[in-house]
Structures are given as C-alpha cells and as structure tokens.
Design a protein that fits this description.
Length: 104
C-alpha cells in the first residue's frame, strides 16, 4: 500500500497508507486532514486543492485542461498545485508528499 505524506498548514506531517486507486482527495478527506472534496471528485469544486512537493510534481502527471480550469478557482495557487481528486495513488507514488493549503 502506498503512503501519502500530508503537510498541514501548521507544518505537521501525517502519513496515510492507502489502497492503490485511492485518490489523494479521498485519503485526505477520510483522514479528516482538512480536505473537503465537496464534489466527490467530479472536477467541479476545487476544495481538494493540494500543493505537490516539487520533487514529486512530475511523477503525478500533467493535469487535464478541465483540471487546470478548475484550479484557476482555487485560492493560494502555486506552480505545483493539483486537484487531489485527480491524483490516483499507485505504488509508483509511494511516499508522495503534498501540502494542504491554508484556505481551501
Ligand atoms: S473534489 Fe471537487 S474538484 Fe476535486
């Protein structure tokens, strides 16, 4: 099972082990880390915004056009911002580190 390391706005790190196929949004939401995922992962909110650690950004793949459009609505956008519902975990992403923005 791959691990995701979430960094909360207060700087605390939380490592969550998930099944392959689980999205970053689902993992963060289910662990009550402050990710809402209001739309359930259908690309119509942006409450699953995460900032991917720069060392991991390329590995998560390129966001789709629809994701980029929705990201424009997110607060605190960064160059490595992604929507957590669009990152599906796999063994290749074991150890993925993402920060949860302060104001999602
Ligand atoms: S959960 Fe709504 S866009 Fe990701």
């Amino acid at each position: 099972m791959p691990n995701i390391i979430f960094v909360k706005p207060d700087g605390s790190e939380h490592t969550i082990a998930v099944e392959n196929g689980t999205t970053v949004m689902e993992a963060g939401r289910d662990a009550n880390l402050g990710i809402e995922g209001t739309c359930g992962g259908c690309l119509s909110c942006a409450t699953c915004h995460v900032i991917v650690d720069a060392a991991w950004f390329a590995k998560t793949g390129a966001p789709s056009e629809d994701e980029v459009d929705m990201l424009d609505l997110a607060f605190g956008l960064s160059e490595t911002s992604r929507l957590g519902c669009q990152i599906e975990m796999s063994d290749d992403l074991d150890g993925l580190k993402v920060a949860i923005p302060d104001d999602i």
